[in-house]
Amino acid sequence: MASEGGDSVKRLQSDLLDMMKNVTVDSSVSACPVTNMLEWIGTIRGGKGTVYDGKEYKLTLEFPSAYPHKPPVVKFKTPCYHPNVDQHGNICLDILKFTRKN
Q1: Which residues are registered as beta bridge partners of 32?
Q2: What does the buried/exposed string (b/e) look like for 78-88 if buried means 16 or more CB atoms within 10 Å of the residue's CB?
Q3: Which residues of 14-23 are buried (b: 16+ CB within 10 A; e: fewer)?
Q4: SS3 string of 20-53?
Q5: Distance separating alpha carbons of residues 16 and 34, to the nearest angstrom
Q6: Measured between alpha carbons, how far is residue 11 from residues 6, 63, 65, 90 in Å?
Q7: What was the pLDDT predicted at 99?
Q8: Which helix (H) or strand (E) element contains residue 61?
Q9: How many C-beta neighbours within 10 Å does residue 7 have?
Q10: Catalytic residue (choose from 92, 93, 96, 98)
Q11: How far is CA 44 from CA 2, 9, 54, 56, 93, in A?
Q12: 92 is annotated as an active-site residue
């Protein structure tokens, strides 16, 4: 029997390699594991010419052992004024609550 999260860890390793291959100096999004492959920290830099220009936002990404069949929990650590982000950094979009139906 595979260890819990083994398949998700393999998938995340593959996702990380793909992301590293496609990074450019102009990339406005980055992410990497912190203490293990299921806990990541991400960074989003505000787009040029937007109200977020010059700002940098840190996020946490917690991947469940059932990833990619269940989505990660993503939360802003840096305060962000946006209609889809609550005062605790939670992203409020129904698409992030997607679950597969049989």
Answers
A1: 41
A2: eebeeeebeee
A3: ebeeeeeeee
A4: HHCCCCCCCEEEEEEEECCEEEEEEECCCCCCCC
A5: 12
A6: 9, 11, 11, 25
A7: 61
A8: strand 56-62
A9: 15
A10: 92
A11: 34, 23, 11, 6, 17
A12: yes
pTM of the model: 0.80
Q: What are phi and psi of 10, to 5 degrees?
A: -60, -45
Residues in CB range of 36: below 8 A, 6 or more apart: none
Predicted local distance difference test score (pLDDT) of residue 100: 60
pLDDT, tens digit only, all 102 positions of the chain: 345 568 999 999 999 999 899 888 778 999 999 999 999 999 999 999 999 999 999 999 999 999 999 989 999 999 998 899 999 999 988 766 666 665
Q: Which two tokens stand for residue 5?
A: 């999260």
Burial degree of 63 (CB within 10 A; 0-12, 13-18, 19+):
buried
Which two structure tokens, joined as six digits, stand for 28?
Answer: 């406005």
Residue given tokens 């946490």 in the structure block: 60
* Per-residue confidence (pLDDT) for residue 31, from 0 to 100: 93
